[in-house]
Target: Alkylation response protein AidB-like acyl-CoA dehydrogenase
Amino acid sequence: MDLTLTEDQQLVQSTAREFLAGRAGADGSELWKEIVDLGWTGLALPEDSGGVGSDFLDVCLLAEELGRAGVATPFTPTVAAALAIAEFGTPQQKQDVLPAIVEGRTIALARGHWGAEGSDLTATPAGDGYTVDGRALFVPFAGEAAELLVIAGTVVALVDVSTPGITRERLDVVGNEPMYSVTFDGVSVAAQRVLADGVDAVTAYATVLTCAEMVGGAQAVLDMTVDYATQRRQFDKPIGTFQAVQHHCANMAIDVLGSRFATYEAAWKLDTGQDAGTEINTAKAFVSDAYERVCALGHQVHGAIGFTAEHELHRYLRHATAAALNHGDADFHLDQLATRLGL
Amino acid sequence: MDLTLTEDQQLVQSTAREFLAGRAGADGSELWKEIVDLGWTGLALPEDSGGVGSDFLDVCLLAEELGRAGVATPFTPTVAAALAIAEFGTPQQKQDVLPAIVEGRTIALARGHWGAEGSDLTATPAGDGYTVDGRALFVPFAGEAAELLVIAGTVVALVDVSTPGITRERLDVVGNEPMYSVTFDGVSVAAQRVLADGVDAVTAYATVLTCAEMVGGAQAVLDMTVDYATQRRQFDKPIGTFQAVQHHCANMAIDVLGSRFATYEAAWKLDTGQDAGTEINTAKAFVSDAYERVCALGHQVHGAIGFTAEHELHRYLRHATAAALNHGDADFHLDQLATRLGL
Amino acid sequence: MDLTLTEDQQLVQSTAREFLAGRAGADGSELWKEIVDLGWTGLALPEDSGGVGSDFLDVCLLAEELGRAGVATPFTPTVAAALAIAEFGTPQQKQDVLPAIVEGRTIALARGHWGAEGSDLTATPAGDGYTVDGRALFVPFAGEAAELLVIAGTVVALVDVSTPGITRERLDVVGNEPMYSVTFDGVSVAAQRVLADGVDAVTAYATVLTCAEMVGGAQAVLDMTVDYATQRRQFDKPIGTFQAVQHHCANMAIDVLGSRFATYEAAWKLDTGQDAGTEINTAKAFVSDAYERVCALGHQVHGAIGFTAEHELHRYLRHATAAALNHGDADFHLDQLATRLGL
Amino acid sequence: MDLTLTEDQQLVQSTAREFLAGRAGADGSELWKEIVDLGWTGLALPEDSGGVGSDFLDVCLLAEELGRAGVATPFTPTVAAALAIAEFGTPQQKQDVLPAIVEGRTIALARGHWGAEGSDLTATPAGDGYTVDGRALFVPFAGEAAELLVIAGTVVALVDVSTPGITRERLDVVGNEPMYSVTFDGVSVAAQRVLADGVDAVTAYATVLTCAEMVGGAQAVLDMTVDYATQRRQFDKPIGTFQAVQHHCANMAIDVLGSRFATYEAAWKLDTGQDAGTEINTAKAFVSDAYERVCALGHQVHGAIGFTAEHELHRYLRHATAAALNHGDADFHLDQLATRLGL
Model:
């Protein structure tokens, strides 16, 4: 058992932190270009695809720093798709897509029958390939993406966003990520664009990366709250000298550390090819709740000042509430955990 | 012990509910005019001041309906000020202010040394009256009000907003109510505008009215969530048939009913002239947390659809988070309760 | 709306409190005799049955004081049965049973198909009456009772404990009340011992009385904890001067007061013949959880001293955990509440 | 990062589990003898002291299995003392004590000024050594131990229990461990029995071992609850098919896994000589609450059957409530965490 970062991992982390400092609210496409230039999208991809061949854990460290910095990028869906393609794609698919991702191509995940969201994608066999119909609601970055990784039942396929029959409609949502409804009307998918498998893989990678982003966000809220508690004075002493405020902050710290343990354990199991199902369900259910608790306590310590519109607490609260639903809410993961327990 | 509404109270409630239906987001000044025409601002004021002489409980029923409808008005500060003036004002003060309030004059509460908000008003004796200096942060409706009820230490005084030395600056906050920072720079207050007393009274009335608004808001969230659970289908049946969703809704209902009990018990004690301190602390601490729990569960049942920008859940979540801080957050009231327990 | 006690109710309360002071752990049968002599079992029964004709609320005040004193008696099942008989019994049944209850006869409630407990009583028509078979698990005071009120499906009947075919086996349970498994092997019940109705009534009365006992127990835990916090010193000052301990006690006080509101609202609705279903479900679910929270915080404030075997905290924790299950646990009442919400 | 068990660790775990199966409630001294014969007390001690030289993590695995089996032994205080002596003892002290511990000598920890428990040990310099006075309350296994590790302020010393001036009084507590009040009346401690240091070390080892025991206990409660949910039928199907029961069990599983992460992270930091303070505070605060939540949900799923006196749930609930206080309750560790956060 060994949970500290290696020197390389520390370098990944500190470089990312430095690069992202003060970038909250940065222009998305410009930031994405810089991220690509830094090589982040290829970090865990094989070297023969133009990647660096690092571990998935290193990618999680980047996701954590993105969450900490409060920036919204297509990093998670793009990398989750890339890792699934690297694992289950044909040589041709890998050659077509992976180097392009290393160079900055973005991918969004369009999924059917996911949770309560009204997605109802179907893939009907047609010739060697499939015809995809239906609608995927709440697809982050679908409008910005060059390609969609479509998941309909057990079918996973790459689809260019310009394929006839695809309509992407921007939704007006509360949240930091651009969100789309994507409609498929008789969209043809050729056999050579269908992956051998990958539903579970893309789900696992995307869920754990989302958890890592949340860990980073929760850490940022803890940091700004402790900082505020030491500076803000009331009755002639810092509010951080009141035991109630101290315990609020300590409880936040416990939730942040617990979230980090759960997330990196799941990441490590994934990385080493073990069955990570229990750890992923545990991480998503725990971290989703913990991040919301951290934001609530952060707001309580900040008091009314936290409600001024420009306060960055809002960005994190929006992130927490949206990310809690991404890739399954608490009820969804509790259901899965119960099944794993034999119930 | 008797907690049902009288016929008169039922009439107040149903009339208000009908009037406010569909008014969420209505233009504030137009709505206020209609509210005044309906006689709400004078409902609990003495008849010789132009009021109706009803109970404070009736006013709470109106506040609950305002919260339920999701509208933001200066009702709570105006009525809390009016009731304190009716109780502690001189005959001249009553004559000057109460009939005007019945006719629609609005009053904002500018308070010093309240919680962690940086307010630091001081009232220094000057001649027969006082000079008020300092700043009151987070004063709802200060920009719209005609008068301020200034609370600085034990001094309570009426101050016209046009008095030299007063600056009102709109704050950009997340929340439904317009919020202001009000600065006092050597503001002269004549003796005849100072109330005999009233700090506790105005605090008590404003706190309980705020609780009543929150009860109404929580009820609205419960109603829309149950409604959604019966209509939204997943796996070919309404999501309200899942036991997890049923229990979420049942837990929301318990919080709403518990909040209503706590609030009306405090209101009733106030109405009958009993010491309501314990009940007010209990109500504010319990209802603040309960409303936030209700919103969180409402979001969980709604899933991603609750994050579309036009969804009215947001209005209530903003209300819950802002109202939780108004007139003291949970820590503030826990401190007071502990004192009442002898600790 | 009016929740204060009348003078008569205050007298009931203070007399009971004085009588019960220091009786925790008293010999059960001696205590029961005194309770009967005080007229408690007949308090809410009609005068023509030898009772006093008081309200159900007064009986709840007695149950609260019994819970507060930490004594275990057959008061709740006996009075719940008596009230149901007074409401749904034939004149002959009333005459047979009610004066006897006023004189001290005790009744236990043997119920089938209740929760997860393995009870499976059936009542099969036989002649004019029924044959009862099966087993009722966890029947408090069945061994001490003179009669059983048997509830099997929609059948409610009085059965003498000496009727052939009845076996009562004492269970070794953690809890303050003597608990029995009662087996029915072809037990004949004559038509004249069957009530016209009463399943809902006896359930409602017993549930609310159980809530009242829990309110009393929670109040006792709060009182002893505040007392300990003011006396016990650490680092040369009372532990009650630490904000964390103050907030623990304040949170306990909120739970106690909220429990009292919920319980007495349900009692009052029952008393006035209104549909009290929502209030009863709310009370049982809320109070069960609140009492356990109060005991947990009480233990935290007391620290290790609370674990000495003779400490009276244990009595209340046992009461809280057992009473949380009596007449349906939280899941049971959440299910019922969801049904009332239309889910 | 790597959290799976090595083959050696898996062997330690499976051997311990097999050995302890069915030993709950076993005679303590006989069990201790067998544990010693298995070499557990020397597992992490240096080979030149007769130990095996394994990691502290391996010892934690044993503590987890002891907690899982529901047995109470002096393993935690004895091993914590041994590890501190191995780290901070003189060569002579090591030679005197460590081989004896390997052979079965037991040590209890007598600590002053710990939490709210009334302990007030003082060590006054006297000659080359100290005179110890005062009382240590709630010392587990003090009556069975051959030696005490006395911690008074910054002084850590080994004291034979037969030293004149020492009185050990058995306390009658609710809990599985025998508990004592130990009084010191002018007890002389020679210089050669005083350790160079070790307050923090013995605290850290004992706290983490206690967490490991709690992890094991929580796992046992989860296992028996899932087992019950699959076997117990209600309305003709296993109760484990109800979503509410499934979510209770899944929430228990999350708490167990989160507790294990937190505990082993702290253990691993200790093992590798890093500053483990934050991890220890996090683990003790989190695991204490989590274990109590697990027991509460276990009771809810079991229903009344869980209250039969012989049900093993009680053993674990007693363990959870007692262990939550050992080595600092949640408030204590929140205070320390706040300090580490700079508050």
Chain C touches chain A through four residues (CB under 8 Å). Residues 31 and 164 of chain C are 30 Å apart (CA to CA). The beta strands of chain C are 107-111, 122-126, 129-140, 147-152, 155-160, 166-171, 179-189, 233-234, 237-238. The radius of gyration of chain C is 20 Å.
